[in-house]
Structures are given as C-alpha cells and as structure tokens.
C-alpha cells in the first residue's frame, strides 16, 4: 500500500514536469481562464446583479474558478488519457508490474495539483483585480465544493476519454462537450438570463452550473447549495460507473 | 529450474469469434536462447506473443512462461518479463533518462540506469526529450524499458519492422547485447535475414500452425531441402572421356557441375573418391552450400521460383 502511494507520487511528479514542459497544455489551462477572468471581469466592474447589492464580479469570479477547475480536471485529464491510450502509453504501462491504481492515482494527483494551482491563481487575481473574495463563513463550502468539483470533473474526464477515438480530436471533443454548457450556464456572464424554461432546466441538470453555484455561494450569500452538491455527487457516481464499464488500456 | 523450458506452449488455440487464428501451436523455448517465431503477416505471431505476455487468455491449450500461467499470474510474470510491443508510444514530453528512471521504480530488482543506457547505446541522448528521437532510437528505448526490471525473459514483437538498414543493424546489435546478458529472448519477425542472424532456433508459423521448428539447418533438413555441392566441370567429363559417378545425382550445367544431397559428407567423400580414381585432381572451384532459411521459407510458403524448386528436389 505505502509502495503504491510512493509510486503514485513519483508518477504525479513526472506528470507535473511533463505538463509544464508542454506549452499548449500549460497555456490553455492557465492563460485561457485568467484572460477571460480579466477581460470579462473588467467589463462587469461597477455593475450589480439586478435588484440586489451584490456586485457582478462577486459571482463572476467564482464562476471562473469553476471554469478553471473544469479545464484542469475534465479537459486536461480527459484529453491526456485519450492521447496516452491512443499513443499506446497505457498499454505499455500494462506490460509492467506497476499496479493500475498507482498509475491512475498518479495521474489524478497531478490533475488535482494543477486544478488547485489554477484555483489559487484565479482566486488571488480575482481578489487583487476586483476585490472579489470568499466570505469567511463560506470557506467550508468553498473547500468542500472545490474538492467535490475536482473529483467529479476528473472522473468525468476519465469517462469522456473512453469516448474519444483519436488523439487529434481529444482536445476539441473535451472542449466541445463542456464549453457550450458553460456558456448557457452563465459562467461567463453573471446576468445571463432569458433562456426558455426547458433549456434552463436542462442546463441545471449538468454539473457545470452546479459547481459554479456552489462556489458562488461561498462568495455571496445565497441559499445553501444542497441540490448542487447532490448534483455533483450524482455525476461523480455516474462518471465512475461509466469509467469502470468502458475504460480500456489500449485502443 | 533450468531443466524445464523458459516457455512451454502445448496445443495452443485461439479464435476471435468464428475466425481461428491459432490452430494448435506447440513449441518450447529454452533458457538463455534466442527463439524466433517467423511467419508472414497474419500468421498469428502477435496473437501467440500476446497470450504468452498475459494480455489474452487462450481459447484452448496450455501455456507456461518461467513456470507461470500468464493469464492467471500476470502480475508475477510482469516482474520477471520484459515486453516490447509493436508500435507502443511514449509520454510525449518525458526525457529518455527520466522515463527509464521511473520505469526502474516499477520493479523489485531494477538494473542500474547507466547500464541500461549503455546496453541500448542511448547514453548520449539521456537528457533528450523522447519526441526528438529517431525511430531506431525509440525502438532501443523500448528495449531499455523492457530491460529495466532485469527480466529473465524478453519478448520482442517485430523489433525492426519499417527500419532503414542502419537502424536495423543497431537494433540487432542491441538484441545481441541482450543475449550477451544471458536473457532468454523470444522474438517475432517476418524478415528471414533477421531470424537467421539473431535466432538460435526458429519456428515457422503459418496460418496458425507451426510448420517447422529447430535451428536453421534442422529446419532446412525437415523441409527436405538438400545441400548443394558444385565444382568446375573437369575437362575429361566435358569431353566425355570420364562418366559421371554412379549413385550420385550430378547434373552438368556446362562449365559447372552440381549435386544435391541430403548427406553432404557422404556425397563429398564419394565425389572426391571418384575424382581420385579418374585422375581429375581436387575438383577446382568446389563449394558446399547449406540450404538457406530463405530456401526453406520460400519452399514452405510456396513462393519458390520454378527453377529453384526443381533444383532443390531432394534425391
């Protein structure tokens, strides 16, 4: 057991080193969300949510926190595993006595590290640029929401990797399956509204809006996001079940 | 331990749905030898290897590798077996030394890093990112990873397919280095020269069956191929003063005479006796050619040119 943990830690370190060596991954994961944070955030400065004294940026910044978590966990891990499978790296791992759990654990640990780092960057820049920070009483929700969100989207990333059929389509498929949902979930626009009722119900069923609302609760007083936490837990379970069913070590 | 073979395959059958890929394969690989499964594409070489590596359970038959059942004891097998698969990629951003280093942590008794780099001649590129390596270097890195755990047996699936001659030679050198370490090596190939150069023993696999198995010479003998003895036709024979010897099938093709024989030593003795009796001297230009693996293989796969097969008929 301790040997597996040690092996997973070493694997995670190698993954991190490789990640920072690869300009495209690092650039997309960090520059993309932080650029959106600053550009769209600037356009929202001075505005308040209609009929409230809550600043737009106070709900916008946690929305981008959710966005960063999803890019780091879902998009990165999902496309990376698809590429590793397509390139035969996963199959090669199976020729060694390394326990599968240690290898996947290492990939997940590296993903968690990346997600926490992007979260920290977004949080700090959100505070410095817009004075948007979490409520003291919201900190437990923030921690719990981040933990559940990272696990949920990492598991969904493993699940989507099994659907991706080529290395070339890995990134596009991962983005295409979440970016439209992120847009209509209002992640980029705190005042986003006017969706037909059926669509707004449909969007609420996805975990993107759920994670955004949990984190927004940590920033601005809102009803406790019990349904959103349950939503994330359900998607985590569904993603884990799908992964267990469909995960393959080779193409 | 050394009494039982390193690999034992008995009555191995494999079907994918209605397609029978292996139809009863038997062979043994001894400890310390280089054994080559030779056959055309689609013969079942890779399937056989994947069963031995524990990637697929066989449909029927028994398989033992280092005394272990690969399907049931794959975890234990993987600590002692190195595997080089066909077209298996590397993490795109890792460096050579870094990847070998982490591979070593997967095994209970790894070989030293410097030693691994040396065996596969990659010492000079140890800090290079793998995506910058040539095809031949990548394949040698495959070998290094397969060797990382200091395995007792190494499986190589078509190690030089698609390589230029220079890259092939360096791969062969690396494989000969593995042999020098005393590893048992089981490799598949569809290149005759590769099998002939590297293998101690060869099994020719065709359409899911082992057609022949043994050393190059044993295989040729089993295939019924004859040794060819030829010499410059003596003037007295060409002029008709001396008759060709009795009991030896000797064909006079103008300036050269050719005999095919299943027993080269006996035929040579008789020929030299006949030459001595008839004062023909030492038989100028005498050559003795054992049948090559290529002759055997071509006869077996039915691709032999008509002239060769007519010449090659055993007496």
**Order of the strands making up the biggest sheet of chain B:** 5-6-7-3-8-9
Number of helices of chain B: 12
The CATH homologous superfamily of the largest domain in chain B is named P-loop containing nucleotide triphosphate hydrolases
Specify the helix fraction band of chain B.
Answer: 25-40%
Structure overview:
The complex is a heterodimer of chains A (251) and B (315). Chain A is mostly helical. Chain A has one domain (2-246). Helices cover 76% and strands 0% of the residues of chain A. Chain A is built from 11 helices and no strands. Chain A has helices at residues 2-21, 23-44, 56-87, 89-94, 100-130, 139-161, 170-176, 179-184, 197-205, 207-219, 226-246. The longest helix of chain A has 32 residues, at 56-87. The mean pLDDT of chain A is 92. Chain B is an alpha/beta fold and 315 residues long. Chain B is elongated. In chain B, α5 (135-147) runs parallel beside α6. Chains A and B meet through α1, α3 and α4 of A and α2 and α3 of B.
Task: Break the fold down into its secondary structure elements and pairings.
The complex is a heterodimer of chains A (251) and B (315).
Chain A: H1 2-21, H2 23-44, H3 56-87, H4 89-94, H5 100-130, H6 139-161, H7 170-176, H8 179-184, H9 197-205, H10 207-219, H11 226-246
Helix pairs in contact in A: 1-5, 2-3, 2-5, 3-5, 3-6, 3-7, 3-10, 5-6, 6-10, 6-11, 10-11
Chain B: E1 7-16, E2 19-29, E3 34-38, H1 45-52, E4 60-65, H2 74-80, E5 81-84, H3 96-105, H4 113-119, H5 135-147, E6 153-157, H6 165-180, E7 184-189, H7 192-198, E8 201-206, E9 209-214, H8 216-222, E10 227-232, H9 235-238, E11 250-253, E12 256-261, H10 264-277, E13 287-289, H11 293-301, H12 306-311
Parallel strand pairs in B: 3-7, 3-8, 5-6, 6-7
Antiparallel strand pairs in B: 1-2, 1-4, 8-9, 10-12, 10-13, 11-12
Helix pairs in contact in B: 5-6
């Amino acid at each position: 057991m301790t040997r597996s943990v040690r092996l997973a830690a070493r694997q995670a370190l190698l993954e991190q080193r490789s990640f920072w060596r690869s300009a495209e991954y690092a650039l997309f994961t960090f520059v993309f969300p932080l650029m959106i944070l600053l550009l769209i955030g600037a356009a929202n400065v001075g505005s308040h949510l209609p009929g409230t004294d809550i600043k737009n940026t106070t709900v916008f910044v946690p929305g981008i926190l959710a966005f960063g978590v999803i890019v780091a966990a879902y998009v990165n891990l999902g496309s990376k595993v698809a590429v590793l499978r397509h390139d035969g790296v996963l199959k090669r791992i199976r020729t060694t006595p390394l326990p599968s759990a240690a290898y996947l654990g290492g990939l997940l640990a590296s993903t968690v590290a990346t997600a926490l780092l992007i979260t920290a960057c977004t949080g700090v820049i959100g505070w410095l640029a817009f004075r948007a920070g979490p409520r003291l009483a919201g900190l437990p929700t923030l921690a719990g929401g981040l933990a559940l969100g990272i696990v949920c989207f990492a598991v969904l990333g493993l699940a989507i990797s099994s659907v991706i059929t080529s290395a070339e389509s890995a990134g596009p498929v991962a983005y295409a399956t979440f970016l439209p949902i992120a847009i209509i979930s209002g992640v980029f626009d705190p005042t986003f509204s006017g969706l037909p009722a059926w669509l707004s119900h449909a969007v609420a069923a996805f975990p993107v809006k759920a994670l955004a609302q949990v984190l927004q609760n940590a920033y601005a007083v809102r009803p406790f996001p019990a349904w959103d936490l349950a939503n994330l837990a359900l998607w985590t379970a569904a993603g884990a079940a799908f992964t267990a069913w469909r995960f393959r070590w080779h193409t | 331990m050394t009494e039982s073979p390193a690999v034992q395959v008995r009555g191995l059958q494999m079907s994918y749905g209605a397609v029978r890929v292996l139809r009863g394969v038997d062979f043994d690989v001894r400890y310390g030898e280089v054994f080559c499964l030779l056959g055309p594409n689609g013969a079942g070489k890779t399937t056989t290897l994947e069963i031995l590596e524990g990637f697929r359970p066989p449909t029927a038959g028994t398989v033992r590798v280092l005394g272990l059942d690969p399907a049931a004891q794959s975890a234990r097998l993987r600590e002692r077996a190195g595997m080089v698969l066909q077209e298996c990629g590397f993490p795109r951003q890792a460096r050579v030394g870094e990847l070998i280093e982490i591979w070593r942590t997967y095994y209970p008794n790894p070989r030293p890093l410097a030693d691994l780099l040396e065996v596969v001649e990659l010492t000079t590129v140890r800090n290079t990112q793998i995506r910058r390596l040539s095809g031949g270097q990548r394949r040698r890195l495959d070998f290094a990873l397969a060797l990382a755990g200091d395995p007792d047996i190494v499986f190589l699936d078509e190690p030089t397919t698609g390589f230029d001659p220079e890259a092939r030679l360096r791969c062969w050198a690396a494989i000969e280095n593995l042999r020098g370490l005393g590893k048992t090596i089981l490799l598949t190939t569809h290149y005759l020269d590769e099998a002939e150069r590297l293998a101690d023993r060869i099994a020719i696999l065709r359409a899911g069956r082992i057609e022949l198995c043994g050393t190059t010479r044993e295989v040729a003998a089993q295939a019924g191929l004859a040794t060819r003895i030829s010499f410059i036709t003596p003037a007295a024979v060409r002029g008709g003063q001396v008759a060709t010897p009795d009991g030896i099938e000797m064909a006079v093709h103008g300036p050269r005479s050719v005999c095919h024989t299943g027993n080269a030593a006996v035929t040579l003795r008789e020929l030299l006796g006949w030459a001595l009796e008839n004062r023909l001297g030492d038989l100028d230009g005498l050559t003795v050619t054992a049948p090559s693996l290529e002759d055997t293989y071509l006869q077996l796969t039915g691709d032999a040119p008509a002239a060769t097969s007519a010449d090659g008929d055993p007496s």
